[in-house]
Amino acid sequence: MAFKLVGDQYSKIRQARKRRVDHLLAGQIPESEVLKMRDGRFACTVCSSRPVFDTLMVLSVHRKGKKHIKAVLANMKRSLEESQPGKAEQPLLAQTQAALDHALFSSQSSSLSSSFEKEGDIKEGTDTSKRHGPAHDTSDSAVPKKKQKMLQSQDKACEVESDKVVTSSNINSDYNRLRSSGWLPLSDGTWIKDPQVEFDSSSDDETSDEGKTE
Amino acid sequence: MHLYALTLQKPSCITAAVHGNFSGRKAQEVVVARGKVLELLRPDPNTGKVVELVSTEVFGLIRSLITFRLTGSTKDYIVLGSDSGRIVILEYDPVKNVFEKVHQETYGKSGCRRIVPGQYLAVDPKGRALMIGAVEKQKLVYILNRDSAARLTISSPLEAHKSHTLVYHVVGVDVGFENPLFACLELDYEESDNDHTGEAAQVAQQNLTYYELDLGLNHVVRKYSEPLDDMANMLITVPGGTDGPSGVLVCCENYIIYKNFGDQPDIRCPIPRRQNDLDDADRSMLIITSAMHKTKHLFFFLLQSEQGDIFKVMLDVEDDIVVRIKIKYFDTVPVCSSLCVLKSGLLFCSSEFGNHYLYQIAHLGDDSEREFHSDYPLEEGETFFFGPRPLKNLILVDEMESLSPIMSCQIADLANEDTPQLYAACGRGPRSSLRVLRHGLEVTEMAVSELPGNPHAVWTVKKDSKEDFDSYIVVSFMNATLILSIGETVEEVTDSGFLGTTPTLACSQLGDDALIQIYPEGIRHIRSDKRVNEWRSPGKRLIRQCAVNEHQVVIALSGGEIVYFEMDQSGQLNEYTERKEMTAEVICISLGSVPPGQQRCRFLAVGLSDQTVRIISLDPHDTLQPLSMQALPALPESLCIVNMSGNVSDDTTVSTGGLFLNIGLQNGVLLRTALDNVTGDLSDTRTRYLGTRPVKLFRVRIQGTEGVIAVSSRTWLNYTYQSRFHLTPLSYDLLEYASSFTSEQCPEGMVAISSNTLRILALEKLGVVFNQVSTPLQYTPRKLLIHPPMSNLVLIETDHNAFTEATKLHRKKQMAEEMVSSAADDEKAEAAKAAEAFLAEDLPEHMFGSPKAGRGMWASCLRVMHPNQGKTLDIVQFEQNEAAFSLAVCQFVSKGDLEWFVVVGTAKDMIITPRAISSGSLIVFRLSPDGSKLEHVHTTQLDDVPIAMAPFQGRLLVGVGKLLRIYDIGKKKMLRKCENKHLPYLVVDIKVMGRRVYVGDVQEAVHFLYYRPHENQLVIFADEVVPRFCTTSCILDYNTVASADKFGNITILRLPSDVTDQVDEDPSGSRSLWDRGFLNGATQKANVMTSYHVGEGINTLHKVSLIPGGSEVLVYTTLSGSIGILVPFSSKEDSDFFQHLEMHMRSEWSNLVGRDHLSFRSYYVPVKSVIDGDLCEVYNSLDPSKRREIALDLDRSPSEVAKKLEDLRTRYAF
């Protein structure tokens, strides 16, 4: 029996190069800003229209574009406004939101590239970690750093309020419970009923209690 | 992963049955085909029981079966049409007890194809030719003859093809010794195919075509064809030549028509219908099966209709012309696939579903039952009416259990017996049942009697060796012996000669007419003339152990001394001069029985306290000399030497002469060692763990050969049956002592002691793996679940084309009222009486069938049962046309941990194809805390039929059509919380582990979903490449699923290690039409680990452990009633060994139907990583020379190979 050769050495090199590029691109994109879909495509979570792209290459091109940068700036403005003292008249809500954000971000803190490493196989013997570090630092925009600063300030806010014990797991499980019961969270911290989900007539009380705790 | 496939229970449905004289003697036998198993059954005319003589798995699908006999011969041959593309003629060899292939002719490709013959077989009644036909186009005729050595010869095939023709039935016409003629029911579809309007198809007519084989010119001619007015489904040959008028009976819708050549006009007779039938009056009636019985002076036909009614049909002949058909109602039996009338007056009915029956034809229907003639004046469309009644002409003689079809099965130990039981919901329609299957032989208890005190041993003795039956039962107590005589009644006797004031160690018949009793102080020899010789034990030493047979006595005194006695020609018992001193205390001794025609048994086995067993010779020239020894892993408890040669072709048996030494150890292990009957060497030990208590052994007689009863914490029986050794537990109370017993009422039984009672037992169903306890159900069971806290069973039963009880009652009342209102005034009183009688009439549906309601009419119920008492605790009847399809027993998080709910998914007015319903619903019931009562909570409307349900994280997953939804329980209805719309066709199976959901689609294999509570989404993250028609699945671990499909394939799928379930749905919520992804849409695909074709549609899969302490296996059950397992190999060497063995078997063993084993197991998809254990076990039935060759190739001895096969089976199952 003779075995046919599939492709040639050049095609192998091309494949390896493409994989390497994908891996590098993945390293630059924080996982919190990308949604990986079940059919292998990617969606940008920063932009409110959630555009969907076929490959990481195209996604990274989008991230350099005008619309995306506009959305990023808008997000920054919003988060700055929220952290300002002007919101002091609703301090509890602000605290809840901050704690929630902290919990959510901390649970998804792994970078996109680490998930890539599980899937793909990087056969080149290059030391990727070194390349990772500087590339990650330099190419990233100011946003993550600012976000990190914000997170730190929120952390402190959390620590101050020590008499109310709010663990991330509690918030997570309550969030999950409400979410899986069919409630949708709004950006102002309230919950509305998902129109796709059915409810009992007396289930209004459910969330009003939960929304007000913590 | 490599698996080993084994069948535990053969298929029990019968697809075809034929009768004849296969062994060449006068006895009539029946050959049955059970899908892929061919069996020979013999109904015993004396006892009336059906005995299975031989059963062979053919590893192919048997499609048709017929017998033929050459002119002047006394023996019948069997012709098989199968999916191998070959016609096969078999002969039964009664000496070897096997089917042997006489001829095998290839004519086409393998597989069940439309144009390749194999579906129909017809034979010339004089045995000169046979025709094998396909569903379409092809028919081949073979001429059969005998050569100078009287062997059967077969010619090359002669073609009788006709293109564009569908064939409905083929029979051979009896034309005496003229050219053989075959009649076919055909339909020519050429015009219908070419006509695009469809009108030609509406008016298409069937033809009755005759094909004549011209023996002189050696070709087949299409002689004559005539169109039929009504659609026909069956033809029946009418005896011809000198025995009758010849011709055929054509069974059409509602009519039976007699047709013949020449001047014979067609005679039409309508098929009688039941009076006051609840069935739709416009529904036509078909004859589905028939049998013909011919004697010297007359012949008659028994025809069975769709409802199960049997009619006796006779033809009135004048001057060789048939003038009328006479038809009479005979009896009603369950609907059959075949009827066989045997010459001994027995009627064998192989039921379509459910148990099969053997009846005795007591009367030939020559009674007051009204007879209808074809020349009675009747309008077109009218028919005769008769009243069905219980059996009058037939007497039920035997019933053969059949599990087919197994609709749903659960395996669990609900009866707390250590071994799990199988709860199988089987059957169809009113003949359905819930059967509890337990591994073990069924024991029939003939008599039980209390005994005073604590008996510890029992024996039976005959007064004279010429007597057929035992004379005394001797029961030994702590300090006395009771002797009972066996006769009309069992009474105590005092004059038997036995000593009743002392306990007995053994007793037996000695010589021809003497008895012997051994007690601790001595031996008592009782002659026929009542003279008694006593031998006293010396000094203060007592007899501890003894062994006795017809001529020899061996006793062991305390201190390890053995004394030997032998009977001489004059009947005197002489002590051997020397006594043997053993090196250790003697714990047990055993003598074999004296071989026929010999003076003595040559070997004595002695078990000593130094954990050894020694074989000592009793030959005259080396009496009491040691021959061999075996070291034991524990202290021996008892020994038994048996001769189990039978007709077992085991290598060891053949080489050592069939003598086995069974050693029961104190740690509950049974050792079986072959004892060479020449040298006395011990070899080839097989070990089996029996239970927790020391093993005691007793010799008994089973079917004329010796067997061993081994008692530990459970009673086991070791016996030979159909050339194989079996070690099977008994499904009975624990016995303490057992002995053979023969009497007039019980020719081969056992007498045993169990907890102070004396029991007489009989073992009738040997060779059966499971014993069944059956509870009847109302409709066809669909799903069966266990309610975990109380271990009750919850099941749904649904039937299509059926009425509910309420509707039936209503209709009956309506019909009764019509009867009265339509009668003339002067007949009102009579009509009222008739109406009353009609309302009071109650024909049990499991015999008479249930009335057919019509398309879209359903009857359904929900039942809670106690699993072992078989009692229905609660039943909920659904409305007419509401059909239950799915069931879940679950708890809801929102209701807490204490309440259990039963959720039933139903559909109303469902039409099966194309699938349409008027509405679907989820009906929720609350189970009472004791699990016995159902309380309706609420009903939720759905827009499609819910076919699958599964509890999921405190809520319920429901497959509604092709949508997968999560529901939570609300106050007034079920609340939909989450939905996935991306499954392709229809959700038929749901399994859950953690947050993963494994969904089986009706056509597109298994989909893997993950539930993300954070987004409240069910996301498909992986699926499969190959389309599979899933019926059920079973989770093996988090990444591995076993799935079965309706074509009989089992596949195991595994997600590769790099698959992640953390994927998201499209955030925009909808999917663009043009972007469907590829091959069902998920990027990640599961790999196929194993694939295997079983051969029958599979309904359930479970991963359980079948024996206490055994590892888990994958158990499957099928529609044909078979149960099998797939067992994982634990080492690579085992897997390699069996793979090589299977390879050898494929090349060495010739398949009975000529099917290639590899291609059979790769019927749909190539077989992967599964070794066919049934084929490997055929190794034991090969010729010794072939066995040696194969074993040599595998670097083992034949007995080692046999041992490995046995070990693998007993390690996981039985």
From TrEMBL, chain A:
Residues 110-214 are annotated as: Disordered. Residues 44-70 form the Sodium channel modifier 1 zinc-finger domain. InterPro entries: SCNM1 (IPR033570), SCNM1_acidic (IPR031625), Znf-SCNM1 (IPR031622). Residues 116-139 have a biased composition (Basic and acidic residues). The keyword Oxidoreductase does not apply. Residues 166-210 form the Sodium channel modifier 1 acidic C-terminal domain. Its main location: nucleus. GO terms for molecular function: zinc ion binding. GO terms for biological process: mRNA processing; RNA splicing. Keywords: Metal-binding, mRNA processing, mRNA splicing, Nucleus, Spliceosome, Zinc, Zinc-finger. Residues 165-179 have a biased composition (Polar residues). It comes from the Eukaryota. GO terms for cellular component: nuclear speck; spliceosomal complex. It is found in: Nucleus speckle; Nucleus, Nucleoplasm. PANTHER family: SODIUM CHANNEL MODIFIER 1. This is Sodium channel modifier 1. It comes from Amphimedon queenslandica (Sponge). The gene is 105316841.
UniProtKB/TrEMBL annotation, chain B:
One of its GO terms (biological process) is mRNA processing. Residues 859-1179 form the RSE1/DDB1/CPSF1 C-terminal domain. Residues 444-762 form the RSE1/DDB1/CPSF1 second beta-propeller domain. Keywords: mRNA processing, mRNA splicing, Nucleus, Spliceosome. GO terms for molecular function: nucleic acid binding. It is found in: Nucleus. The keyword NADP does not apply. The keyword S-adenosyl-L-methionine does not apply. Pfam families: Beta-prop_RSE1_1st (PF10433), Beta-prop_RSE1_2nd (PF23726), CPSF_A (PF03178). InterPro entries: Beta-prop_RSE1/DDB1/CPSF1_1st, Beta-prop_RSE1/DDB1/CPSF1_2nd, RSE1/DDB1/CFT1, RSE1/DDB1/CPSF1_C, WD40/YVTN_repeat-like_dom_sf, WD40_repeat_dom_sf. Residues 14-400 form the RSE1/DDB1/CPSF1 first beta-propeller domain. GO terms for cellular component: spliceosomal complex. Belongs to the RSE1 family. This is DNA damage-binding protein 1. It comes from Amphimedon queenslandica. The gene is 100632564.
